[in-house]
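user: Here is a favour to ask of a fellow structure person. I have my own habits and do not want them to colour yours. Could you put it straight underneath, so I can go through it closely?

assistant:
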Amino acid sequence: MRGLRAMAVAVALVAGLAAGCARDDGSAGTAPSSSATPSGLTQMQKKVAAAESALAQADRDAAQDADR
């Protein structure tokens, strides 16, 4: 069960990152020449943070399940 949760979170993270890059033909491209942050960067950072948090919670749940 632990592996399944971790895999689900990893798939969600990859899907989110792929969706974020899809606007740019699926590639990360080059950095913008201006110093301004690209539109959507903050939103993508929030998504990554949420995925990392979910993965950490899944790890904690799996550790608790393993102790039982």
Observations:
- The chain has one domain: 2-27+39-67.
